[in-house]
Write a structure and sequence with these properties.
Layout lengths: L1 H4 L8 H16 L7 H9 L5 H8 L4 H11 L17 H16 L7 H11 L3 H8 L4 H10 L7
Helix pairs in contact: 2-3, 3-5, 4-7, 5-8, 6-7, 7-9
């Protein structure tokens, strides 16, 4: 995965690398043959130690509730994927990661973290991810801004 975005990528946190790995599990669990935005969001919302989830907690947004709403909205494939190695990331996920890197670099961050990834996702997405936040009463524009601006303990 890292080879796809290596020219622009600042070092990522261990937490973010774990999240990227878990996207594979999320996609495979749903019998999908690629990693989409929704799989990335599910993996990101599942890590209580991430900066993104800690900012959501500060904003009184239940990441678990949003995650469950999103998981139930996603289609299940009929058969497990044939791919035996890492599933490919969709072009949307690749663009999202590149944009999140640019956003974090513009903010003077040395590392890409989960909060910049989720902030970029919420500012760009108009799909199931944002719908899941909105159905739970969250303002995605406000959350995106808070994710970029709020102070939290950095990820490991």
């Amino acid at each position: 995965m890292a080879g796809i975005i290596a020219p622009m990528q600042p070092p990522s946190t261990q937490t973010l690398m774990k999240i990227f790995g878990n996207t594979q599990n999320e996609a495979r669990r749903m019998n999908q043959d690629f990693v989409g935005i929704e799989h990335l969001a599910l993996a990101l919302l599942d890590d209580d130690n991430s900066e993104a989830v800690r900012v959501l907690q500060q904003m009184n947004v239940s990441s678990g509730y949003v995650r469950n709403t999103l998981a139930h909205a996603m289609p299940q494939g009929k058969e497990p994927p044939i791919v035996t190695g890492d599933l490919p990331m969709s072009p949307k996920v690749q663009r999202l990661i590149t944009d999140a890197i640019c956003t974090s670099q513009a903010a003077g961050q040395a590392k890409l973290s989960s909060r910049y990834l989720l902030a970029t996702m919420l500012s760009q997405a108009d799909g199931a991810v944002c719908d899941s936040f909105r159905r739970n009463g969250a303002d995605t524009n406000e959350l995106s801004r808070a994710l970029r601006e709020r102070e939290v303990t950095p990820e490991a």
